[in-house]
Amino acid sequence: MADRYLTFTATAPGRFLTRRLGLPQPTRLRRWSPEHPTLGGELLLLRTADSPYAKDLPTLLRSTGHQPTSTTAAPTAVVLDATAIRGARALAEVHEALHPVVRKVADNGRVVLLGSPPEGSDHHQAAAQQALEGFTRSLAKELGRGRTASLVRVSGPIATAESTLRFLLSPKSAYVTGQVIETGPAETVAAPADWDRPLAGRTALVTGAARGIGEAVAEVLTRDGATVVLLDVPSAGQDLARVADRLGGSALPLDITAPDAGERIVAALPDGCVDILVHNAGITRDRKLANMARDRWEQVIDVNLGAVLTTTDALLKADAFRPGGRIVATASIAGIAGNAGQTNYAAGKAGVIGFVRSLGPRALAEYGVTVNAVAPGFIETKMTAAVPVLIREAGRRMNSLAQGGLPVDVAETTSWLAQGGVNGQTVRVCGQSLLGA
Ligand code: NAI
To answer: What is the pTM of this model?
Structure first.
């Protein structure tokens, strides 16, 4: 559904009126397109003292197509390497680096801080590195004009941050802001031969792919080189076949809650193997708990969580993942913040976050598979178009970018997580929604 307010505020009278009334000022986000695949402009690289990545980071940024500079009047991106900050005093260096430049960052620009994981054994380092989280989340709320800020905690060699930096420093991350992402470990990295088609030669299975976010995920994975197998309920068979035809993939009509769903998925995969599994299928059956019959509870838990667990287990047990396998599940900010009328949905989605946190390290050690999740916020789909108008408007505006996301925003994030470099993480695609922030 079109966001008329966003269109209105893009006009001169609209801007004038909404400013006078103190209403939100969304900036139309610049998303990836074949004509505009990069942010363009200049990347300002700053660092605090003693960074271990002083030599390797500029090299890495150059290999990602940026020409880092240490002075520029109007950067489209600013990267601050704060990985070496180890105490409260040193935080002054963050202020010193960003205070003079933050106003100059171009519309739709990016601020990316690099930090280190807070260490258990050094409470000064842990405090300072945790401080970067509060700092980044606050800056993301201040920036406005479609600009975003996120913190990347680098764990291990700087190469672990490559896919994440490529994503954050591109238009593909337009609706991802205020996030803290930890990279690595090193075994999660698999640099593709061609970064324009990073998933070339991979097979991806996407559940719930007949429409909405799942369809967008299948489309972006195909753009990035993957061959897709599209799964949805048999009653969505026609739509599923249409999407599969359009993308040159294959259709698998199947209810993921069927007791033998895992085995049937393995049987339908080319050679019985897959590289990428995207758990996207999901349903809502909203009611306050006091009014919620058991069947509504069970349906939601079965689809949104139970089937994620059982189909993953079945594919791992059958050794269906090729080396470098990737699982990306779909949580929701409702699973982080909770939502009245959604005890079932939020329970299922919070369960997904627990699933990736627990299985990620073990699946990597035992099968070489990473497990991550996306947590969408308000995304413009048929589901959110059906929400009553006032609640819909509140959902759209209550985030740092003052607008809803698009299915493609979730899809771009999913594709990045399918490339590796990150494990056990849940990344919100919510424009830094106030819910659960
Ligand atoms: P949608 O309702 O448009 O699409 C979901 C798809 O999953 C449908 O095609 C449906 O047929 C399929 N599906 C449902 N049950 C299934 C089953 N048992 N077996 C196989 N396929 C099944 O939903 P949308 O908006 O595209 O959401 C996709 C995912 O993103 C869901 O997991 C949802 O919970 C999540 N999400 C969506 C948000 C939004 O704003 N739209 C916000 C947060 C999370």
So the answer is: 0.97
